[in-house]
Write a structure and sequence with these properties.
Blueprint lengths: L5 E4 L2 E7 L6 E5 L10 E10 L5 E9 L5 E5 L24 E10 H6 L13 H18 L19 H6 L1
């Protein structure tokens, strides 16, 4: 947990993200000690150095007093293109193995109009549905590992056989 940002302007803060190439998700959350001023929130940006060492900024989303935390997937962003960002001409130091998370304090109306990079969003499927889907996929893969052809089957009156297509239909 990094709780001490580097302030680069009155309304802009950055956190260094060492070894970012081995990070898949980033969780951004407010500590609850200092809320945003009324009508304000924070745009969350991800910055990484491209092959030439230039900073590439991508909008991930936002946090507000009403939505004080968010999880962002950054693993697929490292090859994308940058977007407009409020960190503009600031000369922030970049090293090849360090990325940055930038927080820009902005009006809530501006936050609602911004479009984050699509691949940063974490699945919006609720966790129970996701668990159920993964559990059933796992069950099908497990059951399929015992599959035999009709020619390989040996009659055994005490065993019941369920065709795999029945499980798939279910």
């Amino acid at each position: 947990v990094q709780a001490a940002p580097q302030q680069v302007a009155e309304d802009k803060f950055v956190f260094d993200l060492p070894d970012y190439e081995n990070i898949n998700h980033v969780v951004v959350f407010m500590l609850g000690t200092i809320p945003f001023p009324d009508g304000m929130g924070g745009s969350v940006y991800f910055c990484y150095p491209d092959q030439s060492g230039m900073a590439v900024w991508q909008l991930l989303g936002f946090v507000t007093n009403e939505k004080p935390s968010a999880i962002f997937k950054i693993s697929g962003l490292k090859s994308g293109k940058g977007s407009q960002h409020p960190f503009g001409a600031m000369n922030l130091p970049q090293t090849p193995t360090v990325a940055q998370i930038g927080i820009s304090v902005e009006l809530l109306e501006n936050l609602a109009q911004q479009t984050p990079v699509a691949s940063a969003a974490v699945s919006s499927v609720d966790s129970f549905t996701e668990f159920t889907q993964k559990m059933l996929d796992n069950f099908y893969n497990f059951a399929s590992s015992f599959a035999v052809t009709q020619a390989q089957m040996t009659p055994n009156p005490s065993e019941a056989f369920i065709p795999a297509n029945v499980v798939l239909k279910w």
